[in-house]
């Protein structure tokens, strides 16, 4: 897949998508947005891929939207109609078949990808970069990473659904603190808030993330991952009773699956699993 602003590689059933503008701390552009979407689609369709890692090249994960694009919006003398057209063009997202409308927006489509997406936050994760990280399923942080919302210090607002996702991860008061102040926090504070799941030493950071990814890719059922991811994100919009009923139906279907038979067999036979995802 030829790309200008990302790198894409597959090894050990793990696809790694790397934002690749290191001189700009991987500042987000419309080109990067299109290429990340294409890479995630490619990984989802590839039967040899079971887990996806999203990370950044160099010192940052993503330092937010490219300032040149923001400058164009603020100084180009556009009419309100022209400005709206420019923004909506940037935010266009292909529809994903079968996904709920909530997960068909510009950045909220990550939960509609059926495979786990691990955010490997290797450095600065700010503004739009933080939004992208929030939509990953699990977030790992380098002990040198820094986090911030930035929006209030640019005269902007809580963008791209961060007002919905952030409180669900860190709680209402922490979310308002990060949004109102736009202050920078380090990896340990992010861990205490629940913004990230693990903090790993910078020198061995990607090795640690890949180790976890390979464990998912080799030891657990791809079918289980696919179904559980959908269950958890659907449950954000369900009552407890609805989540239980949906889970009961999925449990019945899992008993008829090849991965269930293999899950029991490899355990009894004391051998590594050979799941097919069926």
Question: Could you characterize what this model shows?
Answer:
The protein has 2 domains: 6-217, Alpha-Beta Complex (2-enoyl-CoA Hydratase, Chain A, domain 1), CATH 3.90.226.10; 221-269. The two termini are 28 Å apart. The mean pLDDT is 91. The radius of gyration is 20 Å and the shape is globular. The chain has helices at residues 30-45, 67-75, 80-90, 128-134, 162-170, 172-181, 187-193, 205-219, 222-235, 240-255, 258-269, and strands spanning 6-11, 14-19, 51-56, 60-62, 117-121, 124-126, 138-142, 146-148, 185-186, 198-200. The chain is of the alpha/beta class. A 6-stranded mixed β-sheet has the order 1-2-3-5-7-10, with helices on both faces. The protein has a 4-stranded mixed β-sheet with strand order 4-6-8-9. The protein contains 11 helices and 10 strands.
For the sheet with most strands, the description reads: 6 strands, mixed
Strand content: 15-25%
What is the H/E order? EEHEEHHEEHEEHHEHEHHHH
Please tell me what the overall shape is. globular
Number of helical stretches of at least 4 residues: 11
């Amino acid at each position: 897949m030829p790309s200008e602003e990302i790198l894409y590689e597959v090894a050990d059933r793990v696809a790694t998508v790397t934002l690749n503008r290191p001189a700009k701390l991987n500042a987000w552009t419309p080109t990067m947005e299109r290429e990340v979407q294409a890479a995630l689609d490619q990984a989802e369709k590839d039967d040899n891929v079971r887990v996806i890692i999203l990370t950044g090249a160099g010192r940052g994960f993503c330092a937010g939207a490219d300032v040149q694009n923001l400058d164009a919006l603020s100084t180009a003398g556009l009419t309100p109609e022209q400005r709206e057209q420019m923004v909506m063009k940037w935010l266009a997202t292909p529809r994903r078949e079968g996904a709920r409308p909530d997960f068909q927006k510009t950045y909220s489509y990550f939960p509609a990808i059926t495979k786990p997406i691990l955010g490997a936050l290797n450095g600065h994760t700010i503004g739009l970069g933080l939004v992208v990280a929030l939509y990953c399923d699990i977030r790992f942080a380098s002990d040198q990473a820094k986090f911030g919302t930035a929006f209030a210090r640019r005269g902007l607002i809580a963008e791209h659904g961060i007002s919905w996702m952030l409180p669900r991860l860190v709680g209402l008061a922490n979310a308002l603190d990060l949004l109102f102040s736009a202050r920078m926090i380090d990896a340990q504070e992010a861990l205490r808030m629940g913004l990230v799941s693990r903090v790993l030493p910078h020198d061995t950071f990607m090795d640690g993330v890949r180790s976890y990814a390979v464990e998912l890719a080799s030891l657990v059922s791809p079918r289980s991952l696919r179904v559980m991811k959908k269950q958890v994100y659907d449950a954000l919009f369900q009552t407890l009773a609805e989540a239980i009923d949906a889970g009961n139906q999925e449990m019945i279907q899992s008993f008829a699956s090849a991965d269930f038979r293999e899950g029991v067999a490899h355990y009894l036979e004391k051998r590594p699993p050979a799941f097919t995802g069926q």
